[in-house]
Amino acid sequence: MSSELLDTAGTLLRKLRSSYDELAVMINGIDSVMVKIVNNNVALKYSRKSYNVGLYLVKGRKVLILESSTSDLNQLSRAADDISKYVHIIEESELYAPLPEPRQVKPLGNLVDGNVVKYMGEPAKLCEVLINSAVNEGVERVSGILSLGVRSKALVSSNGFEGFEVGSEVSTYLRVFKGDYSGHWAYGSRFLDLKSIEDVGRTAAQYASYAKGFIDIPPGRYDVILSPLVVGNLMELVVSMTSAFNVLAGFSMFISKSLGDVVATDKLTLADVPRDIELSGSTSFDDEGVETYNKELISRGSLKTLLHNSKTARKFNTVSTGNAGWITPRPWNIAVAPGDSDVDEMVREVRNGLLISNNWYTRLQNYVEGAFSTVSRDAVLVIRDGEVVGNARRVRIADNLSRLLSNIWLVGRKCYLIKWWEVEVPSKVPYILVKDLNITKPFE
């Protein structure tokens, strides 16, 4: 497969080479199986094989980017030729920088798990594991998604870079119901771990079964334990704001910060970890062919670095961090360094508060201020004097990300591998206890 994709990318590059000063060709391939579970049964199985081709084209200091899902090279060549006719009306890029000179990239090793490939041929067996792990805990209904796949990418550029990677991935989530209560859990990795798959159903079921009786929660400030699903969702927002492009564009609460400034409690260390092969975003090279490396973005509460490609690096007078994006630097995988607490210790610490197990509809009202809101989903456990006393109905966190980061009180010692539709960047994150979060009703 490597020679096929690289040959295809190389052929396309040679076809276009004479028309542009610089260019790069990226081909991403996916061979995947998705299974939908509804009411304890496999309802739908969907398989697909597809390719996405990206072209990075430079004429002078004018940059064009073309993406297509076609595998027809002639069609792509014609599209690139058509675009070239309009180069004269395109403005020069304020962030132009030449493609970096190619250097040797250290590979990550074998990223393909044979068990993922095996279960792609028989995913129903894995669905049975998911369903049974929840039903055996006493829940009535389960629904969710199981995805298995193998992704490949090939990158060639006019300055001589050639790179290829292929890796497997598995992600799943399950929502379970028991009477009036529901629970949810998720998992994502490059490698298939049966215990972690079972834990998805088991943990979701435990949340649906844990506390009976609804308790009305008035709006106000509470100490809140955030589950790894919620932590993954919110830290994805925080990390997106460390993209140097977002800082330049005004979509970041770090716009007025300097490296070294305190932006969180010293209990938080937040990193981009492209070389953590447990997580399915792992890669050895970015979209410009620059070697990746693990880096702390917030180190014990202090802003340590921004994410850069060659363009933003030139603007900031620094070097690429291996996070290109032809336009926007981006994280590959997110990790929060573990602390020294477990969930029971966090619960005992809370006098009047909540444990929010899941969230969705996260929105930023003001990027620079970090003002955001997110709505709880599934179990919201009410905690009084160190004990869980019942469930709250749906609530909304409506606060400020800067204040949230500064009010982190305890960090869990165990990290979980999370990826699902509300956590798009693969994440390794713990439970976190945050003091004094603003809680409102979801429809206020």
What does this structure look like?
The structure is a single chain. The chain has ten helices and 21 strands. With 444 residues, it is of the alpha+beta class. It has two domains: 2-205, 2-Layer Sandwich (PmbA/TldD fold), CATH 3.30.2290.10; 213-444, no CATH class. The strands form three sheets. Strands 7, 12, 13, 14, 15, 16, 17, 18 and 21 form a nine-stranded mixed sheet that branches.
Oligomer: single chain
Number of strands: 21
Work out the helix count.
10
The biggest beta sheet, please? 9 strands, mixed
Give the helix/strand layout.
Blueprint: H1 2-16, E1 22-38, E2 41-59, E3 62-68, H2 73-84, H3 114-120, H4 123-135, E4 141-157, E5 162-178, E6 181-189, H5 194-209, E7 220-226, H6 228-240, H7 244-249, E8 270-272, E9 295-299, E10 302-303, H8 310-315, E11 334-336, H9 343-349, E12 352-356, E13 359-366, E14 371-376, E15 380-384, E16 387-391, E17 396-400, H10 401-406, E18 408-411, E19 416-420, E20 423-429, E21 432-440
Parallel strand pairs: 7-12, 11-20
Antiparallel strand pairs: 1-2, 1-4, 2-3, 4-5, 5-6, 7-21, 8-9, 8-11, 9-10, 12-15, 13-14, 14-17, 15-16, 17-21, 18-21, 19-20
Helix pairs in contact: 1-2, 4-5
